[in-house]
Amino acid sequence: MNDRGFFISLEGIDGSGKTTLKENIIKELGRNHSVVGIREPGGTLVSEQIRDLVLDARNSGIMGKTEALLYAAARSQVVEEVIRPALNRGQIVIADRYMDSTIAYQGYGRGLDLQFLFDLNRICTGGLYPDVTLYLDIDPLEAYCRRQGEVQDRLEQEGLEFQARVRGGYLVLAASEPRIKQLDATQGRQQILDQALDLINTGLLSRNRN
Ligand code: TYD
User: Fold this and answer.
1) Which residues constitute the domain of residue 149?
2) Which of 21, 80, 116, 148 is the most exposed place for a label (fewest CB within 10 A)?
């Protein structure tokens, strides 16, 4: 269980601006706290190798369930090697993607059974859920326009319809899970950062009171 530190995850479709937000949050929180940033899939030597495998555009033959299991394997490793130890030391962990990506992409995007994926998430994380999840909501076409000119990985090549299904999944999750806070990703960077910091500070305060 996460008794000491504070665990934040960032979610959204490709091009929603999570990575920039993560860097800005780390800069701000880093003034007063010890913060560890990770990205998923990735964050450890083993998980980064799984990332290379799963995102490689040549691996178009990966089946949906295989893909889900690979993400879960990468997550299991980063939870045990990095996230849980950091939380036990009392640090703040901020993850660029975590378990909700699996529900949104492999569940709503690929159509895999949702219950299987919820179970898989619980198993591969040992039940470690974020204290707060910031979901950056954006229309897939707008996100696509932002990313023009970048080299696309295997999942980004899936196209707008896929991204629209993924977004639909995130919206369902955000409406049903109180830990997930939805932010409008089309706002200016500073506005998004301010809202994110408000939500994080509220979470930190209520944790300190308990
Ligand atoms: P990444 O380059 O990190 O994308 P982004 O910069 O948009 O976050 O690539 C991660 C890709 O992997 C992204 O398309 C989402 C996908 N993904 C899943 O499909 N399932 C998962 O469980 C995770 C963690 C990521």
Assistant:
1) 6-209
2) 148
